[in-house]
Amino acid sequence: MNRRKSEVKTEEVQCVNNPTNKFIRIIKVIDHRFEEVFIVLGFLAFIILINLQVINRYVLPFIDIPNLTTWTEEAARYIFIYISYLGASLAIKKRESIQVDVLLSKLPKNIQKSITLATTLLMFYFSYILIKGGFTMISFQLETNQVTPALSIPMAIPYSAVPLGFLIIFVRMVQNLIQDVKEMNMKIVGIAVVFTAILSLPIILFEQMNVSFMLFGYFILFILIGMPIAFALGISTLATVLASNAIPLSFLPQAAFTSIDNFPVMAIPMFIATGIIMGGGSIIKKLLNLSDELLGFLPGGLALVGVVTCMFFSAISGSGPATVAAIGTLLIPAMVKQGYHIGFATALIATAGSIGVIIPPSNPFVVYGVVGQQSISKLFIAGILPGTLTGLALMITTFFIAKKNGWQGEKTTFSLKDTLTAAWNAKLALLVPVFILGGIYGGVMTPTEAAAVAAAYGLIIGVFVYKDLNMKGVYESLVQSGTTSSIIILLIIMATIFGRLITIERVAEAVASFVLTISENKIIILLLINIFLLIVGVVLEALAAIVILTPILLPMAIALGIDPVHFGVIMVFNLAIGFITPPVGVNLFVVCT
Known about the structure:
It is a single chain. About 80% of the residues lie in helices and about 0% in strands. It is mostly helical. Helix 2 (about 20-60) runs antiparallel to helix 3 (about 70-95) and helix 22 (about 505-520) packs across helix 24.
């Protein structure tokens, strides 16, 4: 018996030491961690580079480093582009995307699988076009010896992010498909192939079809069948281009790079990272404690604490779902324990979290500013009053509902001493909005630089001051930031490609002419736009709606004499309501979890 155990143990050791097994284990580790490692390193690199840029400008002006600001910004942009595509690949691997699956979810399971397979086949072809076009583009750059302005490296190096990024996305889609096909029979596959062929017929048969009709027809169809919205934008454009030759195919890989080779866009991952880093540590608890000292003695005190903390945290994260996740996790169980109805507690935090996209910094404002080419700083300052008023209105409503239901916390009196103590304990958290908004409006930093400083600040106080963020926590936070932000970045890329056709076909002018036939009164038109945006927010995620609708609605608003910054606030405010309206209410999904 002992001899047999010894033989088994020897076999296990040989199996472990087998070079083939070691190679397989290494491949599995690379497959599991490839994007994550580069995302983390990339995030740390461009946080350091942008902070170095700020430090050199103000803290170390006596050190003369030639062209430091120029090359750090260029290097940070190129690293950002690479990690955006790696993040998109990781999102594909994790099957995370922004999509509308309301109709798809109502269909029989086998039909769902067939449609999903068909959309995957179309995504394969789109990725192939970007890979092929991307390598053609960098071959031309190598032949013509093009170099970057500041770093003087071959232009092919940064531009390689496009074909290499879509190649990795392609590989991840293949891996997902292999898993999915195991649960399919030949009938499901056959239906998928036929459906894909039917979708391709208009490209072959109707070459003279109206470009706008084909573009929006394909886009709406792809949205309805549950295709990720970013790919729906890109593939509908590709289909229209193949049918009409409205723009050269070479524009697609070029736009996939130039659309995000943009310093302001980098504020998006930085603000997301700041919110995620600070959302899981002591900062939230200290903000909650301060809010509790300020309002906990009132009827509905804990509910009011939730609203105020959401407003505080909104000035850090710039994201509604991030605000809900950070605060709801701690506060909803506490509210239920104090006797609040669980439905009221969840609905309140979901609603208060939507203020996160109105009070600056705000990712939707950044996206609107980039897509609409408007000042992000002006958009931020324009969101302060509407966001504050929304919070106050929610607090007044909450107060009366709580008073009616007899929801009262343990505190009954206000203590100035305890409030000042709580404010002092929360000072490091309260400084974040000062850094961000003070830096921007004081003319010290751009929004992107302020976001990078805030992210670095969050890492420093989380790791070294509060010590509630270890290396694993930093790693996971940056991976999550990379995945979340890449979904938004991919939307911007595809919207730029989609928007090119909208510009060529003068869709914005056609929409404006149609609206003016209804009324020439600016107030009436604004009311109609508000109603339209409220409806759109019900079925479409806010960021997706902004990248799709801004190129269409903004020119019309400007033509009517509406200030573009004011219009941006109107758009974001209406779409913020969509965070809590089914079926695509993101905050609802987060808070219910």
